[in-house]
Design a protein that fits this description.
- The complex is a heterotrimer of chains A (199), B (196) and C (404).
- Helices cover 39% and strands 10% of the residues of chain A.
- Chain A has 199 residues and is α/β, with parallel strands linked by helices.
- Chain A has 2 domains: 30 residues; 139 residues, Rossmann fold (3-Layer(aba) Sandwich).
- The radius of gyration of chain A is 19 Å and the shape is globular.
- In chain B, a hairpin with a 7-residue loop joins strand 3 and strand 4.
- Chain B has a single domain, classed as NADH:ubiquinone oxidoreductase Nqo5 subunit (Beta Polymerase, domain 2, 2-Layer Sandwich).
- Chain C has 404 residues and is mostly helical.
- Chain C has a single domain, classed as Cytochrome-c3 Hydrogenase, chain B, CATH 1.10.645.
- In chain C, strands 1-2-3 form a 3-stranded antiparallel β-sheet.
- Chain C is globular, with a radius of gyration of 24 Å.
- The chains are: A alpha/beta (199), B alpha/beta (196), C mainly alpha (404).
- At the A-B interface, helix 4 and helix 7 of A face loops of B.
């Protein structure tokens, strides 16, 4: 599965100035490929989602090993993927920020579960409404807790993002639900709120 | 069975037992806060009571009453298998002077329960060895479980990032607006009273 | 070799020393809860410790005061997220006690089956995670495999793997599926076999035993004084189990034993949990034999129970009833009640106060882990630094429950 296909996503820039542009982008793609298959994770496990995280690493789903993200590093300095698994309370927020700051570049953050993504239904004095209020976040995996399959989707979204590199689309990825009963409703609301904003 | 406990209490302490009732199998005695510790010590040490375990301690806020708070203690006797709910009413209408004696020297296990009640409800336990906040952080102001504390008034320790810093939208659109579906939090008037 | 300085006495040759302060947590690899322990160390011995919780305080009790009585169920799920059904059942029983209703017999058996499945899942997770933190990764994988089997049944029944939100006031969200009994009868032997295999790997391992035996011991008297309940109290030899002492549901009609330990050390707590898995399996099999296949699951009381969905769309009475239950919530009579059940970690109490409206005035949970975590400091003081991990693991501190 690890077949090297760097040319597929390489965009040739600065071709007019010679071959150097070509070589740089190719190296970037190679680095990105290496990075996306060897993510060292730091599990910042706080709450309920930790149980699904255990299930994800266990034999049935074998979620992280198949993507080269199996080995956990319990020092933030050695890891490049921060899994924020569970609710972040206001008391926990400085800890999370500090751990994120201790990590070396390049680093990515995966918000595991609704609480980490947006605070979930804990809309109160104690809970941070989403880790993106404190640190940048690359992939959101909603679900309370998300099924391991959804987390695998999130991991693949992250891999795509890493492969796109610094020049590609930097917006965070959001795992889509398999079936979205309120999708139409949400889009209607978005549409109406946009119209109201414009008028 | 626990009815006997209530009768003994009334006999022994007379006026200090303000009120007793028995409802759905739960026996309750409301006692005067001045003799809180004395009654607790009696309940633990008397062989016919033998309440060796303090199961739970919490407080309930009734903003319309004076005294405003009820400190509720649940006791259980492992040997006699009976239970008792002991209450004391403290605090004035503004939530000040909510003080009661600590029971940590009667039941060691109440240490954290008292800290929690202090933290969330703001009841001071006189003589507690280590009365710090336990669930919230020291910088937190106010006591969230009081009815006049707004439920969503957060006091962040880390300043939130703004959308300019992040470069991506941070506010998520809820699938249901406040005008659709369940009016979650109908007690809005009661909750907001503290803000005005 | 001669001393460095001949003029000095021997004692003066020692370097001055002061205790070292060490901060463990709140994000520590070997602790699966969010807890912070500030330690004062002399060498490797713990002199003093300060356990700080609250890193997962999510305002459960405040949130309960905002919705209706039925809207508390999702929050209850996430208290002890390793055994959500036990919390669901505990809360439902508390509200039913205040409303003075009793669910039909079929529902009682159903609640027992789901609750005991949750208890198995809880104990498997606790023991597995503790073993993993001590370096035994294989038994952890075995236990998680067994837990997946439990979760398969629960998912089939409730629709969710972990947070079911399946309890309702006066019944359950759905009646049991026809396959429930067969699934349980097939899965239980497989789960017990996996438990046995994992147990064989651990209990015949000298290193594992040495790290647990006589570590973190506590006497029964001290444990009672600290308000301990559940497996941790039973490990000290006190046979207090709410299911036996004050039976609720149908626990007085099934045959099961209460495993107790003798020394109250970490090994005893481990063994008590293993014993309880077997007892839970016994209870489930008995429930499967005795649960009727037909009959109502919800009480026939329109004040609390939602009407069938089919009627809501066709009859005006059911529509009004549904509307009132959703918009105003079930009106729970005025009063207060303390209800206690046996949760995964001990006595799970709910003290609820109602002012007669559809919204709870106060929902107070008595979390079993809270006093247990309080005792942690006592258990580790005077011990070695490395003993914290097995002791903490065996207490099974669940952040959501302990920090509300």
């Amino acid at each position: 599965m690890g077949e090297l296909k760097p040319t597929r996503q390489v965009t040739i820039e600065g071709g007019a100035s010679g071959t150097s542009g070509f070589a740089t982008t190719k190296l970037e793609a190679l680095l990105a490929w290496a990075r996306k298959w060897s993510l060292f994770k730091y599990p910042f496990v706080t709450a309920c989602c930790g149980m699904e995280f255990m299930a994800l690493t266990s034999p049935r789903f074998d979620g992280s090993a198949r993507f080269g993200a199996e080995a956990p590093r319990f020092s933030p300095r050695q890891s490049d993927l921060l899994w924020v698994v569970g609710t972040i309370s206001q008391r926990q927020a400085p800890v999370l920020k500090r751990i994120y700051e201790q990590m070396m570049e390049p680093k990515w953050v995966l918000a595991f579960g609704t609480c980490a993504s947006c605070g979930g239904f804990y809309d109160n004095y104690a809970t941070v409404p989403g880790i993106d209020k404190i640190i940048p976040c690359d992939v959101y995996v909603p679900g309370c807790p998300p099924r391991p399959e959804a987390v695998l989707d999130g991991l693949m979204l992250l891999q795509d993002k890493i492969q796109r590199g610094a020049t590609g689309d930097r917006r965070p990825g959001i795992v889509k639900p398999r079936e979205d009963p309120v999708r139409d409703l949400v889009q209607l609301r978005k549409k109406s709120s946009l119209e109201q904003g414009n008028s | 069975m626990s009815q006997r406990v209530l009768e003994t209490l009334k006999e022994k302490f007379g006026d200090a037992v303000l009120e007793t009732h028995s409802h759905l199998g739960d026996e309750t005695a409301v006692v005067s806060p001045e003799r809180w510790k004395e009654i607790a010590r009696f309940l633990r040490d008397d062989p016919s009571m033998a309440f060796d375990m303090a199961v739970d301690l919490c407080a309930v806020d009734y903003p319309d009453r004076t005294p405003r708070f009820e400190v509720v203690l649940h006791l259980y006797s492992i040997s006699k298998r009976h239970r008792l709910r002991l209450k004391a009413r403290v605090g004035d209408a503004e939530g000040e002077k909510a003080e009661i004696d600590t029971l940590t020297d009667v039941w060691v296990g109440l240490n954290w329960f008292e800290r929690e009640t202090y933290d969330l409800m703001g009841i001071t336990f006189k003589g507690h060895p280590d009365l710090r906040r336990i669930l919230l952080y020291p910088e937190f102001e106010g006591h969230p479980l009081r009815k006049d504390y707004p439920a969503n008034k957060a006091q962040p320790l880390v300043p939130y990032r703004t959308e300019e810093e992040a470069g991506v939208p941070l506010d998520k659109l809820a699938p249901f607006g406040p005008d659709e579906g369940m009016p979650f939090g109908r007690r809005v008037f009661a909750v907001d009273r503290g803000e005005s | 070799m001669e001393p460095i300085d001949l003029d000095l006495e021997e004692s003066e040759l020692e370097l001055p020393s002061e205790p070292m302060h060490l901060n463990m947590g709140p994000s520590h690899p070997a602790m699966h809860g969010t807890v912070r322990i500030v330690l004062e160390l002399s060498g490797e011995t713990i002199v003093k410790s300060d356990v700080q919780i609250g890193y997962l305080h999510r305002g459960f009790e405040k949130m309960c005061e905002r919705g209706t009585w039925n809207q508390v169920f999702p929050y209850v799920d996430r208290l002890n997220y390793v055994s959500p059904m036990l919390n669901n059942v505990g809360y439902a029983l508390a509200v039913e006690k205040l409303c003075e209703i009793e669910v039909p017999e079929r529902c009682q058996w159903y609640r027992m089956i789901l609750g005991e499945l949750s208890r198995i899942s809880d104990h498997l997770t606790c023991n597995g995670a503790m073993a993993m933190e001590l370096g035994a990764f294989t038994p952890f994988l075995y236990y998680i495999k067994a837990r997946e089997m439990v979760w398969d049944i629960l998912e089939e029944e409730t629709g969710a793997r972990l947070t079911h939100s399946f309890g309702r006031i006066g019944g359950m969200a759905h009646p049991p599926t026809p396959a429930l009994k067969d699934m349980c009868r097939n899965a239980i032997p497989a789960i017990l076999k996996l438990v046995e295999e994992g147990e064989g790997m651990l209990l015949r391992n000298r290193i594992f035993i040495d790290r647990l035996e006589n570590v973190g011991a506590i006497s029964g008297k001290d444990a009672i004084a600290l308000s301990w309940t559940g497996p941790c109290l039973r490990a000290t030899g006190v046979p207090y189990d709410v299911r036996k002492a004050h039976p609720y549901l149908k626990y007085d009609e099934v045959d099961f034993d209460v495993p107790v330990g003798t020394r109250g050390d970490t090994l005893d707590r481990f063994l008590v949990r293993l014993g309880e898995i077997r007892q839970s399996a016994r209870i489930i099999l008995q429930c499967c034999d005795r649960m009727p296949d037909e009959g109502p699951v919800n009480v026939d009381d329109p004040r609390f129970v939602f009407p069938p969905k089919r009627d809501v769309y066709t009859t005006i009475e059911a529509t009004i009833q549904h509307f009132k239950l959703v918009m105003e919530g079930a009106k729970v009579p005025k009063g207060e009640v303390y209800s206690y059940t046996e949760g995964g970690n001990g006595e799970l109490g709910f003290y609820i106060v109602s002012d007669g409206t559809g919204t709870p005035w106060r929902v107070r949970i008595r979390p079993p882990c809270f006093p247990i975590t309080q005792g942690l400091s006592e258990l580790i003081n005077g011990g070695m630094l490395s003993d914290i991990i097995p002791v903490f693991g065996s207490l099974n501190m669940i952040g959501g429950e302990c920090d509300h």
